[in-house]
Write a structure and sequence with these properties.
This protein is of the alpha+beta class. About 25% of the residues lie in helices and about 25% in strands. Strands 29, 30, 31, 32, 33, 34 and 35 form a seven-stranded mixed sheet that branches. Helix 9 links the parallel strand 29 (about 440-445) and strand 30 (about 465-470). The longest helix is centred in the middle third of the chain and has 19 residues, at about 330-350. The chain starts with 5 loop residues before the first helix and ends with a strand.
Length: about 650
C-alpha cells in the first residue's frame, strides 16, 4: 500500500484539528418540539395478518362479531334437557318420572330428537339444547330408573332457562367486541378465535433501518483488531425497536466514508419508515453523517446538538417523508436519546400507547455535581437502605455498555441545577417494570470469585447486585447504610493485617478467600528475568523508558503499589484504572510495561507474573443484620464445598483451607 503524501496527511490533520462544530445546541424541550412538529407521530396504514401473527399487534379497526357466540343454546351443566312444565312440583317425596330419549348430546353432537312432554334427553356441559327443551337439570337431582323404558326420577323443579346458555349471550352477531387501537394479547386472540376470524386488520409495524457507523466497529464474532470495538449499539437498538413494536431492518456497519455512508443512507431511506444510525454525530474528523443528511432531502437537519448529558451530539432530521435519527456513538448516550426521542415515535407509528414508566422515590447518599445548562440523566442502582430506598449513581460514563444492565433506573438533574445534595430525594424512573431491588447489594473491589459466588447464590433463589468502587469505597458505602456487604482487601501498613483494622463499631468481617497479587509484565521482557517483584520494580524506577500502570485511589491493590514505589512517581503513575483487568490490558497491549494485579488475571491475558503477597479478600457487613435471610444465605454459602471447588479452579484459596 502506498503511503499518503505529506501534503495529504497535513490536510487530514488540519481537518481533524478544526473539528466541525455542532450546528446549534438547543434545549431538550426545543429539540422535542421541532421533532414532533416535523415528524407526525401517528399510526401507519393497516394491513391484514393471520390470527396466529396478531399477538402484540394493534387493531386498525373495530371488530364486530360475525356470529352469535355461542351460536346455539347450550347446557351449562351435565344433566338432562327437559321441558320446565314437566318438572313443576317435583320433590324428593314426590319426584317426577321422565322417560329418556334414545340419544346422548355430547359436545359437538347435533340433536335429532325433540324433547316431548314427559321425556328428557341426557346432555353434557356445552351440548346443544334440543328442540322442545327449555331447561337443564343436574344429574345430582335425579335417580336413574332402569328397565325396558329407561327413565329418571327428578326430585327438584327447574324453571325456564335453568342452566341454559343462550345463543349470543357472550357475543351477539354484529356486536363490536374489540375496539380500534386495542393491543392484541392472548385474551384478544381468544375473542377473535371465538368469532371465527382467521385474519385480523392491524396497524402495520414500522420498518426501522438500523445502521452503525465508524471505522472502529466490527461485528460480534469477528476477531478484534487493535483499536477496534464490537458493535453493541446495533444489537441494542434493533432489540429496542422490536420491544416497542417495530421491525428492525439491520443495515450493518458502515465505515466513515462519505460516499459509502451516503449510499447506505439512500438505500435505507427507500426501504424504511424510519432510519436510525448510531455514531457519526460528534465533532470528530470521522463524523460525516450530518453533512450527508443536509443534502438527502428537505427539510434536512432539524436538530444537531441537544443540551443533554449524556446525549449532547444527537442529530434529528427528516429526508423527504422519512425521519432520520443519528444517535451518539457511546452506548449509554445512544440508549438515553433513543428512549427519549425515538421510542415514542416507533410506538406511535405502530399504534401503541406511550410507555408507562414506573418510578419510585429514593434517597441520594452523596452529593452529585452536575453541569449547569444541560439536563443530566444519571443511571442508578436501587438498594434497601436503613431508612428506605437508596439511589446509587453508576459512574460508568456514556461509553459503558453495562450501565443499563446494572441499573434499576435513572433520574434527571434539571439543567437549572448545579447538582443534587446528599440526602435529597430523587425520583427514579424504573428500567423494566418487573425490576425490583436485589436481595443483596455488594459494593467494593471486583473479583472473579465473587462473580462465581453470586452465581451460586442465584441458584439458591437469592438475587445480588455488585458495584465496583474499590475496597475503601465499598467500606464507606457500608458505613453509610447503602449496601449489605463490602468486598475488600485493605492492608493496614502498621499491623500488616488485612481488613479487620478498618472495621468500625457494629461491623463484622466474614473471611472470604486468598488471592496472589504480583507484578505483571509481557513475557520475554529481560528486565523481569530472574528477578523478584521488588527487585524488578526497583530497577524499573531507574529506567526512564519504563512506563507503569497504577490503580485507583481506594483500591486495596493501590497500597501494594505505593509500597513498591516508596514515594516515587514514575511515568504512568497517574494512569489509575479501576480493575485488575484494565491493568492487565494496558500491559498486554504495550501501553504500559508493568503493573500490579492478581495471578488469575495475569494468566488470562498471557502475562508474566512475579508474586508479591497473598492478600485477603473478605466481606464486611453489619452485625445487626447477620440473621436476615439473604445475608444469612450468603454467609452460609462461603463454606459451601461446591463454591470452594470453583474458587480453587480460579487459583484462589478459601480462608483457613490447607
Amino acid at each position: 500500500m502506498t503511503a499518503p503524501s505529506a501534503d495529504a496527511f497535513l490536510t487530514r490533520l488540519a481537518a481533524a484539528a478544526r473539528q466541525e462544530q455542532f450546528l446549534a445546541v438547543v434545549s431538550r424541550d426545543e429539540a422535542m418540539a421541532r421533532w414532533r412538529e416535523a415528524v407526525p407521530h401517528a399510526a401507519l396504514p393497516p394491513e391484514t395478518v393471520p390470527l396466529a401473527e396478531a399477538l402484540g399487534r394493534v387493531l386498525a379497526a373495530d371488530i364486530a362479531s360475525p356470529i352469535d357466540v355461542p351460536p346455539f343454546d347450550r347446557a351449562l351443566v351435565d344433566g338432562f334437557a327437559v321441558r320446565s312444565p314437566d318438572t313443576e312440583g317435583a320433590s324428593e317425596a314426590d319426584p317426577r318420572r321422565l322417560v329418556l330419549n334414545r340419544e346422548i348430546l355430547a359436545c359437538g353432537v347435533a340433536p335429532s330428537l325433540d324433547v316431548r312432554p314427559g321425556t328428557a334427553t341426557p346432555i353434557a356441559t356445552g351440548g346443544v339444547l334440543p328442540r322442545g327443551a327449555d331447561a337443564v337439570v343436574m344429574v345430582e337431582a335425579t335417580e336413574f330408573e332402569d328397565g325396558p323404558e329407561p327413565a329418571i326420577a327428578l326430585s327438584q323443579p327447574a324453571g325456564p332457562g335453568r342452566f341454559v346458555g343462550y345463543a349470543g349471550a357472550d357475543m351477539a352477531r354484529g356486536e363490536t367486541v374489540l375496539r380500534r387501537s386495542t393491543l392484541v394479547t392472548a385474551r384478544e386472540i381468544g375473542i377473535l378465535a371465538a368469532c371465527g376470524l382467521a385474519e385480523v386488520p392491524v396497524v402495520r409495524r414500522p420498518r426501522v433501518a438500523v445502521l452503525s457507523t465508524g471505522d472502529e466497529l466490527v461485528a460480534p464474532g469477528t476477531p478484534l483488531g487493535p483499536g477496534r470495538l464490537y458493535d453493541s449499539n446495533g444489537a441494542i437498538v434493533a432489540a429496542s425497536v422490536a420491544e416497542n413494536g417495530g421491525v428492525a431492518v439491520p443495515g450493518g456497519i458502515v465505515p466513515d466514508d462519505e460516499a459509502a455512508l451516503e449510499a447506505a443512507l439512500a438505500s435505507a431511506l427507500a426501504a424504511s419508515d424510519l432510519v436510525v444510525l448510531s455514531g457519526g454525530t460528534s465533532k470528530g474528523a470521522g463524523d460525516v453523517s450530518h453533512r450527508i443528511l443536509s443534502r438527502l432531502g428537505e427539510p434536512g437537519i432539524l436538530v444537531h446538538g441537544v443540551a443533554l448529558k449524556p446525549g449532547k451530539p444527537l442529530c434529528l432530521a427528516r429526508a423527504g417523508d422519512v425521519p432520520v435519527v443519528v444517535l451518539p456513538g457511546f452506548p449509554t448516550s445512544a440508549m438515553f436519546t433513543f428512549h427519549e426521542f425515538v421510542v415514542p415515535l416507533i410506538r406511535a407509528l405502530a399504534g401503541l400507547s406511550p410507555r408507562e414508566e414506573e418510578s419510585v422515590e429514593a434517597r441520594l447518599p452523596q452529593r452529585l455535581p452536575s453541569e449547569l445548562g444541560r439536563t443530566e440523566y444519571v443511571m442508578a442502582a436501587l438498594a434497601r437502605g436503613i431508612d428506605g430506598l437508596v439511589a446509587l449513581p453508576l459512574a460508568k460514563g456514556s461509553g459503558a455498555v453495562t450501565a443499563f444492565s446494572q441499573a434499576d433506573g435513572f433520574f434527571a438533574v434539571p439543567a437549572t441545577q448545579g447538582g443534587i445534595e446528599a440526602g435529597e430525594t430523587v425520583r427514579v424512573s424504573r428500567i423494566g417494570r418487573a425490576a425490583r431491588p436485589p436481595d443483596l447489594m455488594i459494593v467494593g473491589s471486583h473479583c472473579l470469585g465473587l462473580d462465581r459466588l453470586v452465581g451460586h447464590l442465584a441458584g439458591r433463589g437469592v438475587s445480588a447486585r455488585t458495584l465496583w468502587v474499590g475496597s475503601a469505597g465499598g467500606l464507606a458505602s457500608l458505613r453509610r447504610g447503602e449496601c449489605d456487604l463490602a468486598a475488600m482487601h485493605l492492608l493496614d501498613p502498621e499491623t500488616g493485617i488485612y481488613n479487620a483494622p478498618y472495621l468500625t463499631a457494629g461491623l463484622a468481617l466474614a473471611p472470604g478467600w486468598r488471592r496472589l497479587q504480583g507484578v505483571v509484565f509481557r513475557p520475554g521482557d529481560p528486565r523481569f528475568e530472574g528477578a523478584s517483584a521488588e527487585g524488578a520494580v526497583s530497577g524499573l524506577l531507574a529506567d526512564d523508558a519504563a512506563v507503569m500502570v497504577n490503580r485507583n485511589t481506594g483500591a486495596g491493590t493501590r497500597a501494594l503499589v505505593e509500597s513498591l514505589l516508596n514515594g516515587a512517581r514514575p511515568a504512568g503513575y497517574w494512569n489509575q484504572p479501576r480493575s485488575h483487568n484494565a491493568v492487565a490490558a494496558a500491559v498486554a497491549q504495550g501501553r504500559a510495561d508493568w503493573g500490579v494485579a492478581i495471578r488469575t488475571v495475569a494468566e488470562a491475558y498471557g502475562l508474566g507474573f512475579l508474586p508479591l503477597t497473598e492478600e485477603h479478600y473478605d466481606f464486611a457487613y453489619r452485625e445487626s443484620r447477620r440473621d436476615e435471610p439473604a445475608l444469612a444465605a450468603y454467609l452460609a454459602l462461603l463454606d459451601d464445598p461446591a463454591l470452594g471447588a470453583d474458587l480453587a479452579g480460579l487459583g484462589f484459596t478459601r480462608a483457613g483451607a490447607k
